[in-house]
Amino acid sequence: MRRLILAFALVAAPACAEEITAGEIATLAPVDVVFLGELHDNPWHHENQAAAVAALQPKAVVFEMLTDVQAAEVTPELIGDQAALEKALDWAHSGWPEFEMYYPIFAAAKGAKIYGALVPREAVRDAIMGGDVVAGFGEGADMFGLAAPLDDAEQGAREAKQMEAHCNALPENLLPGMVLGQRLRDATMAREIARAHEDTGGPVVVITGNGHARLDWGAPRLLPDTLTVRSVGQLERAPEETPPHDVWVVTQEAEREDPCAVFKKD
Known about the structure:
By secondary structure, the protein is of the alpha/beta class. The protein contains nine helices and seven strands. The protein has one domain: 3-Layer(aba) Sandwich (Rossmann fold), CATH 3.40.50.11550. Strands 1-7-6-2-5-3-4 form a seven-stranded parallel beta sheet, with helices on both faces. Residues 3-13 have low confidence and may be disordered.
């Protein structure tokens, strides 16, 4: 497993991190695992992912949006039929944005084996409410970073990030559980990526949110040291600070309602 960096002050982006264009993603030196980050509701991010998958031609694609059970149902025949694939995945009830944004990625991955890294809602809820994630995860919990607590600095930084992401409206007593739920998602993703590479020999592409693609505390740092990894973040505006990715792409901003409007008072 990659060395866990415990001091938040030290979890900086790599020295060579830089902004690139979407077209440059596939021109970078080959690696075993490429994380293609996204903001889930941004259609340009999905267009870039589909183009990168088509160009990279990975042996495996790991989707954050699918459970391992769902991924096992995806066949080349299903990938060729958008309506049938959407129905088979019960996408309408998944909570993810419209399937038409994601389908081009599946279509581009037609020759790849599909894996799923989504943790079932019940398991995430159990983690948030203080359940035993080590027992629930099973074999490999220590290998994928779940057995040991985070250091105080990182724990505090991650709790602050969870509060910000939830419009500063979460009860503070839920924050440790929210962080643990995120760690469970990252560990599950890392496990499935490792399995995908072992099964297929790679390269492996990962379709996921930018948070899971973070080099400092996301899934990349939980992977075996034997795998070479690249994290590509996708943003909607130029960052004020260097993002926690190897490279990043800045795209047009998606139109969306204010997600915090429900918490605002007149």
